[in-house]
Amino acid sequence: MTVVTSFDVGGTLIRASTSCAEAICTRFQIREESRRAAIRTLLRSSPLDQRALRDLADLSGVAALAVQRCLDEYLPAFEWQDGAHEALGRARSRGRVVTLSNVSQIDDSTTGWIGFLIDASYSSWRTGYVKPDRRAYENLIDTEAVPASDIIHIGDDWEADVAAPLAVGIRAVYIGIVPPRADLGGVETVDSVLHALDVIESTT
After folding, report:
1. Spacing of C-alpha 32 from chain mean position
2. What are the boundaries of each domain within the chain?
3. Mean pLDDT to the nearest integer, 162-173
4. Over the stretch 21-36, which tens digit does the pLDDT of each residue have?
């Protein structure tokens, strides 16, 4: 029996054409991948407070005021994935529905409307755990207070949304074409979030 259905957000429920991390890297012409990755991780793993703003400025090589201005001007753009709204509704008819996503505070706030369709959000900037860190899923299990076997997670990133939850006993459904790792057998693979619900409903 599925008690909790967990959804990734970006790439699973929505299509986002940009992010605030990308906006910073573009504005300040940051091309070095290690710095770009550090900026993404910082934004995804903590609230955007004054300390985070100073750290972003250091990584970007500019003044904190310049980073703040960039974030103030940032305009996110996203849209629903096909069938996502229906998938959330069908999942909610079966039990609790939550999101577990790597996302910054700014990008998370722009998708606040998802909150009307779910019971809880486990955004990385709130929890401090960025997938594929297994603690993101251990925190989900502990907070929801159910066995791992009563949770199903749906997502489109193999390491973050499949390998990581499987490692703590959570069933996973992969939105993709071909599973990139043959050692993790038995994982349901679908081509859309709506088809993920078809699989869940037919097997639980």
Report:
1. 24
2. 4-15+78-203, 20-73
3. 95
4. 999 999 999 999 999 9
What are the beta bridge partners of residue 189? Answer: 174
| Secondary structure E strands in the chain | 4-7, 14-16, 78-80, 96-101, 120-123, 151-155, 171-175, 188-190
Do residues 160 and 131 touch, judged by C-beta distance below 8 A? yes
Q: Hey, how many other C-beta atoms are within 10 angstroms of the C-beta on 132?
A: 18
As a whole number of angstroms, the distance between CA 24 and CA 69 comes to: 10
This prediction has a pTM of 0.91
The amino acid that residue 175 corresponds to is I
Nearest to 166, CA basis, from 149, 190, 179, 146: 149
* Number of residues that make up the chain: 204
Identify the pLDDT of residue 178: 67
pLDDT value of residue 97 = 96
The answer to whether 179 touches 197, Cβ cutoff 8 Å, is no
CB of 89 closer than 8 Å to CB of 104: no
The CATH code of the domain at 4-15+78-203 is 3.40.50.1000
